Amino acid sequence: MPYKANNLNSNMSRRQFIENIAWELLKPQIEYRSTITKLPVELRGRARALLGIEEPSISVIPENLPNYVGRCYVCPRNKNKSTRRFCGQCRKYACKEHMKDICVNCLN
Questions:
Q1: Could you tell me how far CA 106 lies from the centroid of its own chain?
Q2: From CA 54, how far away is CA 35, in angstroms rounded?
Q3: Phi, psi of 69 (to 5 degrees)
Q4: What are phi and psi of 50, to 5 degrees?
Q5: How big is the CA angle at 42 (ends 68 and 20), to the nearest 5 degrees?
Q6: Distance (Å, rounded) from C-alpha 13 to C-alpha 86?
Q7: What is the DSSP annotation of the chain?
Q8: What is the pLDDT of residues 6-26, one digit of tens each?
Q9: Which of 23, 25, 69, 102 could disulfide-pair with 106, CB 3.0 to 4.6 Å?
Q10: Which pLDDT score, from 0 to 100, does residue 101 have?
Q11: How far apart are CA 36 and CA 77, in angstroms?
C-alpha cells in the first residue's frame, strides 16, 4: 500500500519513507563521527564508506625530518628493524633489504 499521507501523487511505500527520514536524520551525525580523530580508524572508515567518501590520504612521515627513525613495515615485528629510509611513493619506512628507490610493495 503506497504511503500517501502528505503527497497523493507519490508511489513511495511507508517503509521506504521512514527509511529515508531515518537516513536524513543520521547523515549529519555520521559525517561528524567520520571527522573525529580520536575514534578508531575502523569506525571512521565505516562511516566514510556509508557516506561514499574516499579515505583521505595521510602522509605518515613528515617531509622535512631526515633524522626521524621508523620501523620497517615489511619486516616482521620480531626483527624490529629501525631505519631512516622511506618509500618515495607511499611514504612508509622500509629497511635496505626491502627497498631500492621505492619499496617492494610499490614495485608490484
A1: 19
A2: 13
A3: -105, 135
A4: -60, -40
A5: 140
A6: 56
A7: -B--SS-TT---BHHHHHHHHHHHHHHHHHHHHTT-TTS-HHHHHHHHHHHTPPPPP--SS-TT-TT--EE-SSS-TTT--EES-B-TTT--B--GGGBSSSBHHHH-
A8: 677 778 788 888 999 999 999
A9: 102
A10: 66
A11: 29
